[in-house]
Specification:
- The chain is mainly α and 76 residues long.
- The protein has a domain of 29 residues.
- The protein is built from two helices and no strands.
- It is flat and about 65 Å long.
Length: 76
């Protein structure tokens, strides 16, 4: 699985106290853990595979669009 990286874009930085941001972050993580606890492990695997298939579908659409752009148009 991909490593977690520090976000560079922090929309609320400087607008709310850092301590508040940390509490919200911790609350979000705990909420995600509680949701994961309610769902069977197979759900997470199925969800990951479904997301991958959707991304592959979008990749296919983008590749086809690029290919059409690079192909010279036929004159009628």
């Amino acid at each position: 699985m991909a490593e977690k990286t520090e976000r560079t874009y922090k929309p609320f930085e400087g607008k709310i106290p850092e301590e508040t941001r940390k509490h919200f972050h911790a609350a979000r993580e705990e909420f995600h853990k509680s949701i994961e606890g309610m769902l069977p492990p197979e759900f997470a695997e199925h969800n990951r595979k479904a997301r991958k298939e959707m991304l592959l579908a979008w990749r296919s659409i983008i590749d086809a669009s690029i290919e059409r752009m690079e192909t010279p148009k036929k004159k009628a």
